[in-house]
Structure formats: C-alpha cells, structure tokens
Amino acid sequence: MDGTMELRDDGSSAFESAVDVDCGGLWSRVQGAVWPVPAAVRTDLAPATCCAREWSDLWLERPGADRLLVGSEWTWPIRDGLFPIRFENRLGRTSFQPYAGERPVGDAIEVEVISSKFPTPEGHVGFLRALLDDLFARATRLPFALAAPTGRGVTEALQPPTPLFVLHFLCQYAPALRGALAIILGAPHQRLHDRPEFVPLAEVAEADADVLLSILRAPQEWVPARGFPLATALLGYAPARVWQRLPEETFDTPENRFVLAALRAFLAAAESLPSQPWWGRVPAERRAVVTEASGLLRQAVGAPLFAGVGPMQRYPAASRVLPRREGYREVLGQWQVFQHARRPLFAPLRQAMDVRDVASLYEMWCFFALAEEIAIVVGLTPEIQFPPMVDGTGLKQGAEARFGGAGRLVYNRDRPSYSVRMRPDFTWLVDDRPEVVFDAKFRLDRRSWETGVDELAPGRPVEGDIHKMHAYRDALGVRVAIAVHPGDSAIFYDQREGRRALVLRNVLLGERSGVGAMPLLPQAAVDGA
Q1: Which DSSP symbol is given to 479?
Q2: Which of 115, 150, 344, 522 would bridge 134 by S-S if both were Cys, CB 3.0 to 4.6 A apart?
Q3: Is the pLDDT of residue 341 over 80?
Q4: DSSP characters for 75-135?
C-alpha cells in the first residue's frame, strides 16, 4: 500500500489473518482495536473518522515519515516509518499526523479513543451523553460563590469566560448589577472641563496672559475699532472674537468609559448563552434571570448617558471614583470577578468537552455528585466557592463545596505528606482537618480478585486503585480513603472489622476507618445500562 498509512497490531499470529479496514485513509489490520466510526454516532464523534481502543498496542506505518504527532505529543519510529502507539488513561478525540522533516505528510487522521469499559462506540457515546446531561443539571442547580480577588487592578483573562461561568456569574450578580446601574444612571459621574472656543469680544469673561497672547497670535481676527484701551493699544484695531476657556460638564469620563466597556462585555457573554447546546437543561428560573439580565444590559448600554461616551483605551487604575463611588464600586467588583474567570472546573470543563475527555468529565461530575450525596447526609445545601487566581496566568486549585459548620469538600487539594506531595481529587475536611479523601477512577476491572477469571459484570474497581487508597490513607494521615468509580460494586475494608458495607453516612460521621471504593454513575447511564 504505497503512500498509505497502515495501522498494525504488534506482530502476533492473528495479524496475518486479520482483515484490512479503511478508516478514511487510515488502514488497520487490528480487528476490534481500530475501526471506522459507526454511522449511528458519526455526528457525536465528528470530526473523528476512526475509533481506537484504549490500552491497545497499535503500530502506524508511513514510509518516509521520521516522527508522528499524536494529539499534542511526538512519537518517534522504531524503524523507518513504523511508529508504536498506545493510549493509557487517555480517552476522547485525538489525531495522527506524520511528519517528514518539518513538513506534515498528508492530512491528519482524526481518531476517537474509546474506553475499554464499553463494548461499542454507541455505548461510549451513550455514557458521554448521560454524563454531560447530569453534569450540567447538577452544576446549574447548586448555588455558587464567585469570590472577587482582593488585589487591586484588573488583569485581562487569557481566554474569555466560559459559558458555564457566565451563567453562574449572571445568576449571582444580576440583582446587584440592577441596583448599581440604577444608581449610576440616576446620578452619573461627570466632570467640569474647559472647552476652548472663540467668542465675540463682548462675551469675554476672562483676560489672563494666555488670552492676551492668543489675541496677538491671531491678527486675522482683528477689525478696525476705536474708543477703548485695547483698540488704542492695537493702533486702531480690536479682535472681533477672542479665545476663551468655556467651562462645560461632560459624561465622557474614564469612569463612564469603564462602565460602558464592562456592560458591553457582560451583554455579549449573556447573549451567547441561549446558543449553548446545554441551555435547554438549565432550570427555567435561571434562564429567566439570564433573559432579564440581557434586557437590562441592553437597555443600559443604549441609555442617553452613554451616547457621548467614548471607548475605554485603558483601565483607569488611578481613578478614585471607581473604588469609592456607589454604583461604580459595585460594577468594578463584578468586572474583577468576570475578568478572573479562568477558575477550577469552568475552563477545564470546556476543554474536556471540546476533546470529549470522558475521564476528566467524570472527575468533574464526581465533584458535584459527591456534593449532593454529602448534602443528603448532613442535611445542608452546599455552596460552591472558587478561590481567586494566584497570578495572571495560573490557577489555584481548591474549589470547595461548603456545608456550613458540618465540613467542606475541596477539589484537587494539594497536600504535603511525610514523603512526597499528594493531591487526591476530593478531600472532606471537618474543622479544617482532613478526614476523608475521594479519588475518581474512570476504569473498571472485569476480573474477579478471588478467582482471576473475567466476569460479565463490569462494575468492580481496579485492584490497584485500592492499593492507591492505602497509600493516600498512610501518607496523608486521613481516616478513610475511597476510590470513586463508574461501576456498580461498593467495597469497604474497615481497619478494625474487616470487610463491611460501604455507607457514606458512616464514613463522613467518623464511624468507619479504612479504605474502599464506591460507585457513582449518572442516573441516565444507570437506566440505560
């Protein structure tokens, strides 16, 4: 197959008897490891033309190619044009692009990496749909606290706020924004400035050195005159018009330019929400808040106050009005939150959706799912809070679900141990003391731990994940460490009593000490299983 990519198995005897499969220019002899995207899910998996199985050893051959770009990572050949490929804990969309020197060889092949937990691409897509549906349902019904940074000034976000962030921003700040705009439009900031203009001699109100100098420099304004000292001094002439500084009040101030720029940014973000594919899953009361906020912003931007206000060229950092004057102060605080919108969950969530990274989406979904499970145990509605950015380019991990005095669930909390630093996905703290850690594991084991034989039931966690929980518990000194998996088997090993039933209430309230695994699945995935 001259000039054609060839994707091969590792050279086993089955290779010789396998059948070639054309995946839009990508040829495979690995039945069950790479195959064309089925027609039923072609739209869901676009632009992928092929499916590849996770944890499968593949070989791609392209004569003349000296390196291969797999997604964003480079791979080098083991011999001329032959590249090994293996996806481990990597799911979703990727691409294969061979290179010869600095130039790509042919078009990139778009590939969808399918989880080994699902026998078919249809099953993989079904789980992804259920996961996204439930993720947005949970994320849009929990109260969020988007804390403004305490530092001065405004740092431009590296990317625009994600739509999910905009939704929570508007739901939280719409009432305060309405009040701030009412104050600004009712008593806008204005300033007195001098407007230079030539006026008739009879209307001159001041005659300082600048005015006299302007008369001498504009002889074209002189006309014959007599009978008063100025005409005598100018040898029978006097100016018909004289340059004056006329005081004038204007709304075109740096502060009003800032407010107008902020309102336009809020409005553009609000108007983008109804086009999002998940908009229909947002609760009706929150859609109403966004619609009302859009109308308010549209009306404010068109107010007569801003008719003569120019564009903001730079942020008025030296202004004393913005941080002190009522109305302007509130808009400034909201703008700072809006500009610091690259926070844990929101930006990574958008990125994970774009590449269909099921493992990352599952981890984020677990944050909301655990928050609601804990809410049932403690009887309190969680408030989701996000920390400010550490600097202009990075993020401080530590999104929290706070349950009053009962405790808080922290996302990606980096903690030192007596050996190396560890960062479990979720930490449950009571009185700021870490009690329980949860770690999302998007993988399952079909093999029985007791017999070593493959089972039909797909719901058991990988045995190595239980070992990892022992490491977390030992290194971090927590009472319980639990692996969260997308299966149906709950396992718990109490330190004193051995294997016991896993009950989340017992774990959170201090009645258990040990390691285990708990299943968490979107309800739609459970129903469709």
Answers
A1: S
A2: 522
A3: no
A4: E--SBTTEEEEE-SS--EEEEEEEEETTEE-SPPEEEEEEPTTSSSHHHHHHHHHHHHHHH
Contact 295, 258 (CB under 8 A): no
Q: Does the structure show a pLDDT above 60 at 125? A: yes
| DSSP reduced 3-state for 401 | strand
Q: Pull the structure tokens for residue 18.
A: 């396998």
DSSP 355: H
Q: Which residues pair with 439 in a beta bridge?
A: 483
Side-chain half-sphere CA neighbours of 224 within 13 A: 0
Contacts of 39 by beta carbon, 8 Å cutoff, 6+ apart: none
Angle, vertex CA 133, rays to CA 48 and CA 380, nearest 5: 145
Backbone phi, then psi, for 466, in 5-degree steps? Answer: -65, -40
CA dihedral 44, 50, 56, 61 (to 10 degrees): -150
pLDDT 10s digits, 69-92: 998 889 999 888 888 888 877 788
List, in sequence order, every beta strand (DSSP E) within 105-240.
Answer: 109-114, 144-146, 191-200, 222-224, 237-239
Strands 480-485 and 514-519: parallel
119: preceding bond cis by omega (within 30 degrees): no
Burial 53-72 (b: 16+ CB within 10 A, else e): bbebebbbbbbebebbbbbe
**Pair type for strands 400-402 and 408-411:** antiparallel
The single residue listed with the structure tokens 């969020």 is 144
Distance between CA atoms of residues 502 and 67, nearest Å: 49
Closest CA to 429 of 455, 456, 411, 452: 411
Task: Find, among 107, 5, 3, the residue nearest to 59 by Cα.
Answer: 5
Lowest mean pLDDT, pick from 73-77, 177-181, 356-360, 448-452: 448-452
* 93 phi and psi angles, rounded to 5 deg: -85, 135
Q: What is the pLDDT of residue 2?
A: 38
The pTM score is: 0.61
Q: Is 90 exposed, middle or buried (0-12, 13-18, 19+ CB in 10 A)?
A: middle
Q: How many other C-beta atoms can be found within 10 angstroms of the C-beta atom of residue 311? A: 8
What value does the CA radius of gyration of the chain take, rounded to a whole number of Å?
33
pLDDT digits (tens, 9 = 90+) for 511-523: 999 999 998 888 7
